Amino acid sequence: MKFTMRHTHKLTRGFTLIELIIVITIIGIMMAFTVPAITGALKANKLTQSSDLLRSQLAYAQLQAQKENAPIQVRFFQYTDPTLPGGRDKFRAYQLFRRKAFDKSAVNAGGTNQNVETMEPISPLRKLPAPIVFADSERVSTLLGLQKTRGEVPYKRNNPLDAQFVAFDFEPSGSTNLGSAKQWYVTLVDERKEKGAEIPDNFATVQIDPFTGAVRLIRP
Questions:
Q1: Is the alpha carbon torsion for 41, 46, 50, 53 positive or negative?
Q2: Which of 10, 88, 147, 198 has its CA 20 to 30 A from that of 2?
Q3: Distance CA 59, CA 215 (A)
Q4: pLDDT, tens digit, for every residue of 113-164?
Q5: Which residues contact 30 (CB under 8 A, 6 or more apart)?
């Protein structure tokens, strides 16, 4: 008995040029819809993280003032970031300080004892991630309308930046040294979407009660 074997060859068919163009077009359309959404979500995440950190740092400053029975100062710094092309003077960072007194009698020209108060940092400089900044219009950030003082920002080790800052204190009682004539808050926004005295669509406002020192976060 003779057996014959038949070999069947399966024909493999590739994609045609038209099919490839259709697939690439579909991918392009999907990316056109998804990339802006992902980018917007990342920016919103930066805003959320920055505002949450600020709120927690202010609560920490209040706690330290009560714990140490001494004022803790919060400073908001305004400067131009040298790493950003075309950067402008904006409020971009904040830092916490405790008041520290030391005796200056050794260098006092009159030879008398004199206690001089200095500020000792109790937190690192907290820089907002670009493009997030503090909106500097007093209408949306009343805290930034406080009197400005010129000083240095510890931007990099042994390379400080000249800057202006505004400051307020948490008192040992847990309250603040802010006046009661207005509400006090600071607003975080995307620098490219900032609208001056108008609040942009996406923002985060951190409000401080001047009497209790309580901190509240407001989001749209």
A1: positive
A2: 10
A3: 7
A4: 555 668 899 999 999 999 999 999 999 999 999 999 998 887 776 778 889 9
A5: none
Question: What is the C-alpha end-to-end distance of the chain, expressed in Å?
Answer: 86
What is the average pLDDT score of the chain?
A: 83
Task: Domain ranges for the chain, please list them.
Answer: 17-218
Amino acid at site 212 = T
190, 40 Cβ separation under 8 angstroms? no
Does residue 33 contact residue 99 with C-beta atoms inside 8 Å? no
Q: Please tell me whether residue 69 adopts helix, strand or coil conformation.
A: coil
Q: How confident is the model at residue 35 (pLDDT cuts 50, 70, 90)?
A: very low
Which CATH number does the domain 17-218 belong to among 3.55.40.10, 2.30.29.30, 3.30.200.20, 3.40.50.2300? 3.55.40.10
CB atoms within 10 A of CB 216: 11
